[in-house]
Hints:
By secondary structure, this protein is of the alpha+beta class. The chain has a single domain, classed as Immunoglobulin-like.
Amino acid sequence: MMRGWRVPALVSAVVLLAVLAGCSSGGTPRRVSEPAASIQQLTVQADGSWSVDLRLQNYSSMPMRFESVSLAIQVGGEDAGPLEAQPALTIGPESADVVTLPFAPSANARLLLAGRLADGTGTSYRLEGTVRAAPADRGKAREYKVRRDSRLSPVPGLPGVLR
Length: 163
């Protein structure tokens, strides 16, 4: 007599599990993480200005819309000046993209970098400021604080280029 109720109970349990599985989100959790910025390449132009290839990193699990960057650049401890841009760039989840920006450095930073290039040595750099970004499909943009300390080295065979 016990056997008779086991089959309907088993069927009910399977149906209940199927209903519960259908109610779960089933997708990847949506996570917004702080973005990062770094200099991928810096090119010294003939007129002394710089071209900065700024790498914007999206660590979020969803595409993010990068609306603006406001960063102070230092090279070798010298203030080079502010880097301001509105890239209007959407970067996929856990990905990065590069935006090339013109930059007019301070006289001291220009001289320091020219000397380092002439010596064939690299230099340290610091980026400090904010990146404004929001989920691409919704949401209001938020400012994220960014600070990056790294190094740039001359690229052999490419005069005036550091990576």
